[in-house]
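Sample A.
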Amino acid sequence: MTRTLRTLTVPLDGESTPGGLPSYLVRDDVLCWTRREAGLVGFGEVARFTATGPERFLEADIWWRHLVIEADITDHVECPGTGPVAFGSFAFSKVSAHESRLIVPEIVVGLRDGRTWLTQIRADDGELTEEGALAALNGWLEASGPAAPGSSAPGSSAPTASRGTPAASRGDVPAEAGTAVGRSETATLQTGSLSEEDWMTAVAAGVAEIRTGRLEKLVLARDVVATVPDGVNAAEVLRELAVRYRECWTYGVDGLVGATPEMLIQVEGRTAQARVLAGTLDRRDAVGEAGLPLDYAERVLAGSEKQRHEHEIAIQSLTTQLAPFSEAMNAHSEPFILELPNVWHLASDVKAELTEVEGHVPTCLALINALHPTAAVCGTPTQVAGALIRKLEHLDRGPYAGPVGWLDAAGNGEWGIALRGAVIESPNTVRLYAGCGIVEGSHPEAELAETWAKFRPMLESLGIGS
């Protein structure tokens, strides 16, 4: 039985971290949710919840609400992400053996809208003070091992609260986004559950099922396993992703690492937002094309009936499921081109004002329970697509394409879909995942090539390929 939580949140001097939150990504066990140098980073663990099965989101929601309603909270900052928070990762499938989890860290550093803060969370009777919180943070950083390239040594000087005390920098993130740190020349890559040929056969079988009219869209994933003899440095991977993919949400939870471009649901007060992606173009396809690259992407993606159809299915999937929880909703009438270092996507942002359901505004996890899995990661109709995925993929996705993110005691939270990511399975091995939306016009060879484009962020961050 978890004891009552006690938390203290104090402002930090933002000048102590000129590199933003990626400067704190110095431990392989760090909990991480960052975008454009802002977000949350956590250290340690004071409480954990795990579950499997179809009720995993609601069970986690009940656990969290009971935990925070009894918590003793002192919050001198009071914005989304302050006070007690939990980082979470959930299995994609309701039948997966993989344990979904919420983790409450001991120390959280947050950065939002130019404000930086530090939260200490305790489940014992120890005293909570600003000085103690700073000492605890510095203790985690001091124990992080060798400094990141370009960093001051962890623990060389503690960050300080924003009450005038000088503070040393935790160091900048790697300066050159195009250079992988600690690149290993001996890393190897092997196919996972299915060979490339077998996976393309599965895609063809999926297209055949779609042509029968049983479903409109199917998302098929595949895995590859990277072996890194020098050892997998999770902190290094996260820093690389945070620098290269600033427009994505870089996440790290219990060995699940990645940088997702897709927001399943973000809740702040009564406002919910989502970013839906469907339709992908490898940027390498534009090499040698005349004119501006974005013009090429607009022509190929927005001008493609197949890509537009796939995108419309994904939007309808989200808005239909979100509607019962909303009193007002709007979405882009036309998708926009999201430009990432490896690919372009057709993207749409959806915004909704939440309404009360049974007397209260729905929580993040209640919304996730209704929204997941969307057509963007499963297909439509959901039940038909899910059953076909289990038949064709020969793969337990684990946390891949499941919700990943954080929530606080006030009901705020950010939950992305765990895409462009991997699971660190041992000190030397990482399992990478990528998937594609399959519709009637899909071609197996093109879908296979798309998976390699989607593997690229993780491969590059591991120092494999270019």
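Sample B.
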Amino acid sequence: MLSFYVHIPYCIKRCGYCDFNTYTPSELQDGATLEIVSNDYIDAVLRELDAAPTDVVPTIFFDGGTPSLLPADDLGRVISAIKVRNGLVPDCEITLEANPDSVTADKLARYLEVGFNRISFGMQSAKPHVLAVLDRTHNPANVEKAISMARAAGFKSISVDLIYGTPGESLDDWRETVNAALALDIDHISAYALIVETGTKLAAQIKRGDLTMPIDDLMADMYLLIDQMCEEAGLTWYELSNWSKPGHECRHNIAYWQNKNWWGLGPGAHSHVDGKRFWNLKHPTTYKQKLFAGESPILDSEQLTAEQMKDEAVLLGIRMRDGLAIALLQPQQLEVLGEYRHNGFVEINEDRVLLTPTGRLIADRIVREITI
């Protein structure tokens, strides 16, 4: 089995907190439109596809950037090529990440026709003042409209992404956002703590003192609040930052957390095949030039050692609701976890280690202590 990630590196505007490998048309070419900078991009992606293994495909995930800026037929060319070349499992999960402002009823219907069956909208917050700090361009009211259109078009699985811990966001603000998300016709929520990345507009604002990050206790309260609210609404956590109705877990992301094989198509995309990681050069123009010249876009790679793969199995496994197999752990690691069990951060049954809700707050610390 081989999953595919497809990177669409274009955005109309760069959000203030974002350090993803994305570009506005004017950043790539003075005075350019999206159509100009993207018109041969799919051709390049299809050339890269020729280098991938031909294993059958269980999931495809289009992210970016803003994939929903591109016409459905362009994205559909990639789905069709993968289907012809590799074959798709009968229930292949094919996800589109979308900006609520960038979809229409007609576009959504066409996305379904070309093969998508799951869609995830970048909601981030229901509070205008929080969206303003994040530099998000969408109107909060458009989220409900977009989700209603997606459901009417026939999407069977709909998710929203949320961000908590934005400067100026209170616990009540966050509660209103989660309530608003749960009131939507959705099957899945991802919620991520805001991370301030060096070099972003947000990092500069914080460095100048224009904005102040919330304290850790508030961030913890926000996480525990969404966990409680989702569980009460019938969305169960299955990974640190993800909750879903039964059967609506994101199978593509689970493939990452289970260290399955995947191939990343596009500039800056990462891949993992049989213990080898490799990643593409980042700039879309250079990426296209390489492929049109018949050269590989891979920038670098690493072969994971047995020890690295074991550590990654611990790092990723403990994030999941199913927990970490005790068989993966050494006696000294179990001894460390025994202390966390005593303090209520983990549960240990006969064959697995499971994080409690408060344990999830310090998952990274627990992993560091048992893998270093």
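B remarks: The mean pLDDT is 87. The chain has 16 helices and 15 strands.
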